[in-house]
């Protein structure tokens, strides 16, 4: 069977498989059938607001319930899905499942959905996402679209028009992993993101690094002058929350508040929160 080799590297060779090409074909077949068999599922990670730390949203993070290898993370299959032109079917399948899960959530909880760079380069893909949302009956104003800086750069004008399609439907836009890519300030302003998500690499060095704190402070000032909200990723420790809150960051996400979890666990969490 397949075997894990350190962080995220998977060996796909199996008995009788002679070449890397065959292994690759096997992976492709597996992913195609996984999508059909419902093995690709949404996990949910809480996003909490400060200072009360109530859950205000859930980020949808794809997982592959692999029959032999257990729960696989996106690092193992999203790129392949992109190469195979399966990323849009995958996103649509997630949206369908999210719609079902959201029916039992409190009405004011929103979801964040990650969109690949490639999906921003094709207006038809944006339309199909919106169609899926309308079909399954999720209120679009409960949806935030997350995209990375790099996704804007390939074809800026196209990205701009695709984003305006989402916006017209009432969805909000978040710039994911901020601080790791190359977005120009002009783009930031022009595309009118509702939110910046500070990459977890900045938070990771807190509280020790004064430099990281200065960067977060600068990002915070930038965001507020553009009228954008800020969410901090990757919060793992109590000392980090205190520093981040002091900077005026309005919400956060990280293992401290909750790891990505399957829908049943998310439901249980809401029941506990509502009981408080
Ligand atoms: P992302 O959108 O930046 O998502 C946050 C990632 O950080 C998630 O990894 C999450 O599990 C992880 N994380 C959250 N809090 C902490 C923390 O406190 N400490 C640490 N060490 N990690 C934390 P995950 O689930 O492996 O997802 C990785 C990336 O895969 C995502 O990064 C996103 O870019 C991509 N992705 C996930 N689902 C989808 C999807 O449905 N479509 C697309 N296109 N991309 C997706
Ligand atoms: Mg994200
Ligand atoms: Mg992120
Ligand atoms: Mg990230």
Automatic annotation (TrEMBL):
Stretches of the chain forming a coiled coil according to its record: none
Domain of life: Bacteria
Domain EAL: 24-274
Entry protein name: EAL domain-containing protein
Organism from which the protein derives: Jiella mangrovi
